[in-house]
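Thread: "does anyone have the structure for this chain?"

Original post by V.I.:
We have the sequence but no experimental structure in hand. Need at least a predicted one for the grant figures.
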Amino acid sequence: MDGDLDEDGVCGVLIAEKKLGVSQPTASGHLNILREAGLLKAKRIKQWTFYRRDEAKIKNAKQTIVRRV
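Reply from O.Q.:
Generated one for you, tokens below.
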């Protein structure tokens, strides 16, 4: 897998296997929900998709949740 951790993020296959312990299709479904919500950025490199957190959007989401609580 040819991705730069800082620039591209982490490969979805590694997230599924090493971090979540679920199948790749299961992880992809959840990662896509987070991407559609704007919390993750996805980048396709060859046959793999790399995911990186969108720190600004996460910070904004946290502030919105705190204001509503």
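V.I.: this helps a lot. DSSP finds four helices and three strands in the chain.
O.Q.: and Helices lie at 5-8, 12-20, 24-36, 55-68.
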